[in-house]
Amino acid sequence: MSLSLNDILFYFLAGVAVLSALGVILQSNPIYCALSLALTMVSVAGLFASLSAWFVAGVQLIVYAGAVLVLFVMVLMLFDTKAEKRAFSKGIVSGFFKIASAAMIFAIAGGAASMSGDARFSKLTGIASATQSTKDLADLLFKKYLFSFEAMGALLLFIAIGAVALSRIQGGTHAD
Amino acid sequence: MPTSAVVVDSISSVGLNHYLILSAILFSLGVVGVLMRRNIIVILMSIELMLNAVNIAFVAFSRSLQNMDGQAMVFFVMTIAAAEAAVGLALATTIFKKFREVNIRYFEHLKG
Amino acid sequence: MASSKAEFLFAILILAPLLGFLANGLRWKSKNYMLAGSIATAAAGTSFIAALAIVMRLFGEGAPKAVTADFFQWISIAGLEVPVSFVIDHISALMVLVVTGVGTLIHLFSIGYMSHDERPTKYFAYLNLFLFNMLLLILGENLVLMFVGWEGVGLCSYLLIGFWFTDKEKAAAGMKAFVTNRIGDAGFLLGMFMLFVTFGSLGFSEIISKVAGLAAETGWTGPITLAALFLFVGATGKSAQIPLYVWLPDAMAGPTPVSALIHAATMVTAGVYMIVRLSPLFILAPNAMMVIAIIGAATAVLAATIGLTQFDIKKVLAYSTVSQLGYMFLACGVGAFGAAMFHLVTHAFFKALMFLGSGSVIHGMHEEQDIRKMGGLAKYMPLTYLTFFVGWIAIIGLPPFAGFFSKDEILWFAFSSPHGSVWLWLAGFVGAACTAFYMTRLMALTFWGKPRFDEHHTHPHEAGPSMTIPLVVLAILSAVGGFMGIPHVIGEILPGHPGNWLEHWLHGFIAVPAGETHGSAVMEWILMGLSVSIAGLSAITAYFFYVKEPSVVERVKNRMGRLHTLVYNKYFVDEIYFAKIIDPIVNGSKALWAFVDVNFIDRATFVAGDLVKGIGSTARTLQSGNLQQYALFIALGVVGFLAFLFELRASLGKLLMQAFGG
Amino acid sequence: MGKDVFEITVNILKMFVIFLMMVQAVPILVWLERRGSAFIQNRLGPNRVGPLGLLQLAADAVKFLFKEEFVPRQGVRFMYFFAPIMAMIPGALSFASLPLSVPIKIEPFQMLGQMWGPYTFAFQGYDLGIGIVFVLGISSLGVYSLLMAGWGSSNKYSLMGAVRASAQAISYELALSLSLVGILIVYGTFSFNEIVAAQTGPLTFRAFGAEHVISWLPNWGVFYQPLGALLFFSATFAEANRLPFDLPEAEGELVAGFHTEYAGFKLLMFFIGEYGHMMVASALLATFYLGGYNIPGVMPDDVLAFWQSAVGGNLASILTAVTFHLSLLLRIAILLWIFIQVRWTLPRFRYDQLMNLGWKSMLPWALFNVCVTALWVWFGHK
Hints:
The complex is a heterotetramer of chains A (176), B (112), C (662) and D (382).
Chain A: H1 5-26, H2 30-50, H3 54-79, H4 92-115, H5 130-144, H6 146-168
Helix pairs in contact in A: 1-2, 2-3, 5-6
Chain B: H1 16-36, H2 40-65, H3 69-99
Chain D: H1 5-40, H2 56-66, H3 77-96, E1 104-106, E2 109-111, E3 114-116, E4 119-121, H4 131-140, H5 142-152, H6 156-187, H7 192-198, E5 202-207, E6 210-218, H8 221-224, H9 226-239, H10 251-254, H11 264-289, H12 300-310, H13 313-343, H14 351-380
Antiparallel strand pairs in D: 1-4, 2-3, 5-6
Helix pairs in contact in D: 1-2, 1-3, 1-11, 1-13, 2-11, 3-4, 3-5, 3-11, 5-6, 6-9, 6-14, 9-11, 9-14, 11-13, 12-13
């Protein structure tokens, strides 16, 4: 079985994604976690591109890597956190359950995925040009999902107001 | 018509299940992060990781089924994720102001 | 071409008042009456122009029968499709022009009237909101949309009647109007349900097309008869008919332009409009028609007699409105839907005129409403007097002013229509006599004779142009408005033989009762002469009573003391309602509360609460507040669920294998 | 990448050339900035080394290369070293996705005893159908460089510069993207090539159902989107951390902001990043609003015909591309000069002014622009 260019791309990006995701959950300094997550996001954007979801890939870069994660990093920097002495929660029994449940989720989901058959992506089918697929996406968003789209807009507005209100609270867990 | 720089090869051996398994791995890592970490911001990041894993599955299915709806969903997931991050960070900031630390156990104060 | 589309114009027409409402409503604290009034008037004017632009399309050779606009699907549940779509056909064209046209004039009038008010912006916002809802009511292509407007105008009416809510009585009047209307609305809803159950649709055009060809129902319990009766209950509420008319006189607590717009010209005619709209349905229920005619005639007479004795200028007009609405229902009841529409339009002109005139008087007399304290105002307020004079002639039905044509048409149909009878005509005739009497009395006490107020103290004055212009315009309309429906008998003797334009215009849009008409042209002339002469006669009598020999009034009053007390107190209807309906309900509710509520319902909720509390106090130990523990539960749940899912699938697969695979 | 060796080689070479173009422009720009600022301030500036001081560039380069490698002891080495590299990436990647001229069409020709061609080489590094999204996405990654530099230096001033920079970048990215939405609505595409192609010929716009042509104006985006162009241009100043938005390195308050602890070649890389950002911004502005590489009043075919009559053959195609490329470069140069002129003319904003401008002024105006454009287009197509 020879590796095509696309395969190499996939394995590379997937490797980076998994390694950096491991970095997120294992590193004790939250800033490194955040930077690892940024790397994950970028490689996920690459994976989207490899699935010819160009627009989504671009948005992934803009929204996740460019905005959300920067926010995380900024907040962490403002908090000036050092590497944590104890990064993980206490409790051996619950720890066992936690890891076990995650493993079970992986086992079941991964098992189901691998049973889903060999749905190879063939070359030509369904690779619309980036322009066309973007237009199709826009069509869906502004016609079929118009209401959800508008609702999202409302949600973001409320969230923005809520976040501002939250962060203006002067100390304490109760607003006064 | 512009052409894509990356050409998907005809003999590609990577298929839907590869992406799904990758998605499952990332999701489980996110679960571990949420369950195990003590820093609330890292927990938030783990949630983002889980959402990303789901996005990968969405896009892969969208490609496999030749249906753009999956990508539209990704769009919504991203919006929700951004919103969630904003509120989560605002909460974390509030907690930090009070305790100078962002440990998850401070949220136990929310217990009724 | 059966109909044409005009989404854009309709959007302007309907949204302009809404935008006006928002523009004023969002800055309701402002006291700049000029700005608020200009915005509101501009919004109403825009609507009027848009309405004109749409109605223009209906004219001319090969013009569409209706202009429609479909916006979006509002409700779509199995079997029930409610689109937000609007229609202007020949019926709603009349109505929309009246509403927006008269509405604009009244907005304009309000600028002057509300100039000293505390909250003018709020007032204009309400006025625009009312206009918006009224347009929904008129233009909606289905009963649901009409009902939305119906409720909306009810709300605005409530808000505006109680506009000066600091006065407890006025607030109570608003509430009375609201509650009374609710009773009617329940009927309307039931009617809608009946129609939906019967025809599976709520669109006007669909109902009418399904009704076409059905035979008339004879009994009392047929679905169409029931639906018609229920709808009529709704109409009695909104259009102030027996037994639900009691709110309208009290509604005069609101600002006078509101009385003109809502409680004379537009909203109260909604019931008539609704019946005309559904005339092909009503015509199939002769028994319901009979009820409508009798109630209409009874209302016409009853309200007119009450009007004879009232001293509040607005109350007189209010009872007159109730009475005139009775005429319209009488017309509907005898199947003369065209005449009802005709009277609706002319009544809108002259009654709006008279209300605005009374507003001008009240404004000029510094909020004085008692006509006993007026008199001789003609020389102080010449323009108001002149315009009011026109309105007076129009309402008492002297030719060739508007009221004559429409009222006479109603009376003629009451007599000649297959549903009509001599008794109905007689009722209308008596009503007309009373109308002429009390209107002349109003004129006499207000404008004629000697001033009965302190001339050194009060200085009645004419108001500014924003109040006089609407008066003049409405006076002109009241004078000439009748020419759109010249009866055939008169048309034939006039040069050029003008036909009955209105009848022609509405032809094919309203139902015509089947059966023989009785009466001839000669009969029509005779009846016409009778009614004009009785109107003239009672007008002259009233003039004699109240201007020449005021002592006669006292004598008559003393002679018929008990009758006068009865009528003066409005036949004690309000008191009867209180004693027979409201008090029993209140007392019964109190009894229910004391026994059923406390013993059963409260106890049930307490027990449920205790139960929940008990379970909760045991279960709360699970809630440690540790978020990650919660998350673990979630994760375990997911695992369990997924495992269940896949296990189930596997065993299902096994089952299938056994069944088919061998 | 291509269908044979020749095409692949050329395509790879092309990317190198474009990258080098960006890098090599930096010394020139540094020289220009120093000379220009000197003239603005009534000084002479560097004029000793070489003619007009031009060799100052070489001297600077040598100085940078031989500076002592200094690393803060408490810093985070990985971040400290990686930040300058990261600074260059967004600019380079973005610049490579821009169309710099008309494509070169090569007729079949004989070489090494073999027939080659025909080929069409786009005059750009790579063409993504959704170039605009790509550029926005990539340039939003630029913040990490500042954050890493700030954190990695383990220096208060650096960190404050970095946090300021990232807050500023996120704020203005919003206005920047929103001002672009107008262009997206007008042209209905994410592709640079389609946008450039749409800007040929005289000014033609549709309004109220009719088409209007103004023959003495070129069909440039700035005429459709004047407000958008202004907002975009202003936002790019903030994105590139140039005066009057250079709060991140505000030398009066923060020594030198996020690159306080940098020296030598690493500092130079930050410079390359910043100037690269400016170049990309200028090129984007030219592409969106100033007709891209188009020459007003001249169609590509005319130029091709002219060169064909002059030299003929494949050279004509190449020369055509070069002509148009120069036309774009001219625009970029003018815009870069405006960047420099502004830097030495305007004072710096205060931080609250900066945030107010971004959130309370530019963002609403950009939204207004979007609404107006949408209405305009809607009425245009009615």
